[in-house]
Design goal:
With about 400 residues, the chain is of the alpha+beta class. A seven-stranded mixed beta sheet has the order 6-5-15-16-17-14-18. The protein has a six-stranded mixed beta sheet with strand order 8-2-1-12-21-20, covered by helices on one side. The chain has a three-stranded antiparallel beta sheet with strand order 3-7-4. A hairpin with a 5-residue loop joins strand 10 and strand 11. Helix 1 packs parallel to helix 3, helix 1 packs parallel to helix 6 and helix 2 crosses helix 6. The protein is globular, with a radius of gyration of 21 Å.
Length: about 400
């Protein structure tokens, strides 16, 4: 739906570097406001990398605003996140979404919906263009065909050549794969399920719906790894690794099945960092190009979507829209970054102390009102206002 309010500064010539989640959302939102938007990506064919993710309620609202709301039909509603310590059986994680479910979705399905929304909004999509740098608002390409714009939006993600952000590597990452959903398993079809052994072993299963044009329901499976553990994992036979997973979590056997290969998995490495000033002359950074954290709170894609919406709102007649964008997102990002940094070592680390604190103190506390309600707001993405200076009170 095209909003009645059209940007006062409509007609800007905007380049978006990167056709990922944040870049395509920004393309659709800005094009729908009347800007001339061109999206550049290095691949000849769009190639979303990875398996599944969770779009929280705040992110789903941005998809609606971007004209991509129908993509949610491909996903799986997530009512709850639940995890148990494998050896003791202690319920370590139990967070319900309440009336606003999350959405498990395959990255390719989400990317497809946003790509179609950007095209429908009138954004020009130009693939096979590898960005190498910028000079103010002049975007530089590998082929030397530099082009000038009113502003560049850096949506190139964690590997952005345009971003000066230097992030801190985190000690743990994960391997991810997509597998058919096992209807006859004991796994709940509306929740993210996880098993842990201390904090150095973690397995998970997330329902992620279907791919466009397909009917097969899918799940994303993941296994925690030390950041330097990929080589050892690939050297281990899949059968041996599978036995390790199932010793931790026998009920996961239908998902961690015998047909898996190392090549089915994507390795994810995580970093943590935030740009204090996510813009400079001629360029503004969004998503992982501006801030990065572990995925423990399930907020990565949502942060990129919220950045895209905040940029759109800031461009609607603000005297200094880029400062307005930065200030609007500052506290939401800072608080979620801090919470992510605090929670992550309890689930992904080599610590022997933190898992005990998690299981004996924090897990019981999480089930006591009002902590339950706070955790629900936390995972929904709006524990604090997402962009208070750009939205009406209560908006």
């Amino acid at each position: 739906m095209q909003e009645a309010l059209i940007a006062k500064g409509a007609g800007m010539k905007i380049a978006i570097a990167g056709a990922g989640i944040g870049g395509l959302a920004a393309a659709s939102l800005l094009a729908r406001d009347g800007h001339e938007v061109r999206v550049f990506d290095q691949f000849d064919t769009p190639q979303p990398v990875g398996s599944g993710l969770v779009i929280q309620p705040v992110g789903q609202a941005v998809l609606d605003a971007a004209g991509a709301g129908r993509v949610t039909e491909l996903g799986a509603p997530i009512a709850k996140m639940e995890g148990f310590e494998a050896d003791t059986g202690v319920k370590v994680l139990s967070v319900s979404y309440g009336a606003r479910p999350g959405l498990g979705i395959h990255r390719a399905a989400l990317h497809h919906g946003l790509l179609e929304a950007a095209r429908a909004a009138g954004a020009a999509l130009e693939f096979g263009h590898r960005v190498t740098g910028h000079d103010g608002a002049v975007l530089k390409f590998a082929g030397g065909d530099d082009q000038a714009f009113d502003v560049i939006v850096d949506a190139l993600g964690a590997g952005s050549v345009l971003s000066p952000l230097v992030a801190r590597p985190l000690p743990y990452g994960a391997v991810w794969a997509s597998v058919p959903w096992a209807d006859k398993s004991a796994m709940a079809g509306d929740q993210l399920s996880q098993r842990y052994r201390r904090a150095d072993r973690m397995a998970g299963v997330l329902p992620i719906g279907t791919l466009p044009g397909q009917s097969q329901k899918l799940a994303a499976i993941f296994w925690s790894l030390p950041a330097d553990g990929e080589r050892a994992w690939r050297a281990q036979s899949i059968a041996s690794w599978r036995n390790e997973v199932l010793a931790l979590w026998p009920d996961a056997a239908p998902f961690f099945h015998t047909g898996l290969r190392h090549a089915d998995f994507t390795v994810a490495r995580y970093t943590h960092g935030t740009m204090r000033r996510p813009y400079s002359e001629g360029i503004v950074h969004i998503g992982d190009a501006a801030h990065r954290a572990s995925p423990q709170l399930g907020q990565g894609a949502n942060m990129a979507l919220l950045d895209a919406l905040a940029l759109r709102l800031a461009l609607r007649g603000r005297d200094d829209p880029y400062l307005g964008y930065a200030m609007a997102r500052r506290w939401h990002i800072a608080i979620y970054q801090a919470l992510s940094a605090a929670f992550t070592p309890q689930y992904q680390s080599s610590s022997r102390v933190l898992p005990v604190l998690r299981d004996r103190v924090l897990a019981p506390l999480s089930q006591v009102p009002p902590v339950q309600a706070i955790l629900t707001r936390l995972v929904c993405g709006d524990l604090v206002p997402t962009m208070p200076s750009l939205t009406p009170r209560g908006g």
